[in-house]
From TrEMBL:
Keywords: Aminotransferase, Lyase, Pyridoxal phosphate, Transferase
The name this protein goes by in its record: cysteine-S-conjugate beta-lyase
Cofactor(s) of this protein: pyridoxal 5'-phosphate
Family: Belongs to the class-II pyridoxal-phosphate-dependent aminotransferase family. MalY/PatB cystathionine beta-lyase subfamily.
Cross-referenced PANTHER family: PROTEIN MALY
Length: 366
């Protein structure tokens, strides 16, 4: 229950399109970007507020992570600070440190009902001289969808500190909130300083067919980000392009049903943890199929991942993975759990977790 893909079958329209593509041959795809896919993405992203995206504002990638690295490489210099909120999907801080930059971390703080941005921490991060902010929206692993008020403050923050922004919006289609999704660059005030990365792999469970896109309203900024990576990364395959186009054109009903099932799984997990592990803590994710569970109150929190693997046969993602080296101790005792499985398997995994961690359960078994 650790790796971020789903246990569900791929949407039938995608399978049909892939079979048809196989039967028609596997020559080179259009390496500059399939015009049909660009048009479909223009329509889809306009619904998130990214209206009027120019055709030259699209650069296709073999996945989203290369876009994160490309942005760090092009929009910051070695030795400079790069701002990101922690905990965060680990390629964020790895892109920073792998390329010789410094993580200017702004740890999230626990609010009454959800994790929240610590604005004092953000200002301290900006004071380190950063020129780039890496935003995860929706946020992995907290499951937050930054709301309109938070996005307004984030945009003001970027403008006040003259920051470039790369916004990873990969999980935007996996939301449980009623409000429409709003991209960071929906506001024209920040469009000339922002690039957005996204892809189909999370929403449509197609991680094995790598593809992503980096988009921006400023073709010049998009070129600035991608030009240094020319020849250093692969291009999407004919099958991945076919898959994404089919997902956008025909995958809507499948996605709607899947999100509804995931919502039920989310509610089941949160209720289970609160009932059976009252000493633990979990906020209800607003997006993603990932739960961020605080198990620091357990006496074996310092080795919690190994405890769950050895004593429960349960593989989870260890909290410190989601922080740069200096902050790893702060997240020891947290785990990230994937709930994109059947209700029966989810229940079984959570029962194993409770049996391994609740002393009274273990005593009863002995």
């Amino acid at each position: 229950m650790w790796v971020a893909d789903m246990d569900y079958p791929v949407a039938p329209p995608i399978l049909r399109a892939l079979r048809a593509r196989l039967e028609s041959g596997l020559g080179y795809p259009q390496l500059a970007g399939d015009p049909r896919l660009v048009r479909a993405l223009q329509t889809r992203l306009a619904g998130n507020g990214l209206t009027d995206l120019p055709e030259k504002g699209f650069k296709f990638l073999p996945g989203v992570v290369p876009g994160l690295y490309a942005a760090v490489n092009a929009l910051s210099a070695p030795g400079e600070a790069v701002i990101t909120m922690t905990p965060v999907y680990h390629p964020f801080h790895l892109a920073i440190t792998d390329l010789g930059r410094v993580v200017a971390a702004a740890p999230l703080q626990a609010g009454a009902e959800r994790d929240e941005i610590d604005w004092n921490a953000m200002e301290l991060a900006a004071a380190q001289g950063a020129r780039l902010m890496m935003l995860c929206h929706p946020h992995n692993p907290s499951g937050r969808v930054w709301d309109a008020a938070e996005l307004r403050l984030l945009r003001e923050f970027a403008l006040r500190h003259d920051l470039f922004v790369i916004s990873d919006e990969l999980h935007a289609d996996l939301r449980y909130t009623d409000a429409p999704f709003e991209s960071f660059a929906a506001d024209p005030a920040v469009r000339d300083r922002t690039v957005t990365v996204t892809g189909p792999c999370k929403a449509f469970n197609t991680a094995g067919l790598g593809i992503g896109v980096l988009v921006g309203h400023s073709p010049e900024l998009v070129t600035r980000v991608m030009a240094p990576a020319t020849g250093l990364m692969g291009h999407p395959s004919a099958l991945s392009i076919t898959m994404w186009l089919a997902a956008l054109e025909e995958g809507g009903p499948w996605l709607e049903d899947t999100v509804a099932y995931l919502r039920g799984n989310r509610d089941f997990l949160v209720e289970f943890v609160r009932e059976h592990l009252p000493w633990a803590h979990v906020f209800s994710p607003e997006a993603t199929y990932l739960a961020w569970i605080d198990l620091r109150a357990h006496p074996r929190a310092d080795d919690i991942q190994k405890v769950l693997l050895d004593e429960a046969g349960l593989a989870v993602h260890n909290g410190p993975v989601f922080a740069p080296e200096a902050l790893k101790p702060q997240y020891q005792g947290f785990v990230r759990v994937n709930f994109a499985t059947s209700r029966a398997l989810l229940a079984g995994g959570l029962e194993r977790l409770a049996a391994a961690l609740n002393p009274e359960v273990r005593t009863g078994e002995e």
